[in-house]
Amino acid sequence: MKAILLEDEYLLNANIKEYLELKGMVVEAYTDGGELLEKCNLKADIAILDIEVPGATGFEVIEWIKRINSKLPAIFMTAYTDMESIRKGYSLGCSDYLKKPFNLEELWLRIQQLLDSAGHTKIELGNGLIFDLESEQLYHGNETEKLTRIQRKILKLLVENRNETVTYELLIDEVWSDFYIKSNTIASHIKEVRKFLPEGMIESVRSEGYRLNI
Description:
It is a single chain. The chain has helices at about 10-20, 35-40, 60-70, 85-90, 105-115, 150-160, 170-175, 185-195; strands at about 1-5, 25-30, 45-50, 75-80, 95-100, 120-125, 130, 135-140, 145, 165, 200-205, 210. About 40% of the residues lie in helices and about 25% in strands. By secondary structure, the chain is of the alpha/beta class.
C-alpha cells in the first residue's frame, strides 16, 4: 500500500512517514503543495493532506487529485475547526477529517478503515510480504509462499482481524468447523505460519488466542 503525504511541518511529516513505513506502507512525502502537483504521479492508495501549506493548499491539491482519480480516498489533517473549512473539504471530496493534534495510531486506524471500505484486498505485512484476502495467498515480492490450505485460512483470519485478538473459538469455528480440535493442534499450525512472517508479528494472547500485530 502506498500513501501520498502533504505536511509542511517537517517533524510531523517525518514522524508520520516513519510510523506508516513501520506499518508496511510506502510513503511519498511532500512539504510543499506546489512540489506535489509538479512531481507526484498519483499512483497511490490514499492521500493524507494538510490544508495550509506553501505552494498550493490542500484544497487545491485535492481538487487536482479528484480530477485524475475521483475514487482515491483522502484524509485532511488540519487545525481548522470552523464548519466552513470542514464543509469545503468534504465538498471537494475528502473522505475524513483529522484535527490536529492527533495520535498517530488514530491516523492509522482511519487509514485502515478507508482502505477497507475502498475494497482493498492486498494487505502489506512488512518485509516485502503481502497477503491477498481474496485469493488467500501470501506473496514475498513476486513469489508466492507455499502455505497449506489450513495455514492460509489461519493467516486470512488473523489478517482480517489484525491488531485484535482472534480467539481459539473463532479459529476453530472458521478454520476447522470442528470443536474437537485441541489448542495444541492450533499452536502447531500457528508455529508453521510464523515461519513465513517477521519475528514477533503473531502474538500469543494467554488463554485467549492470537493477535497479528501490524
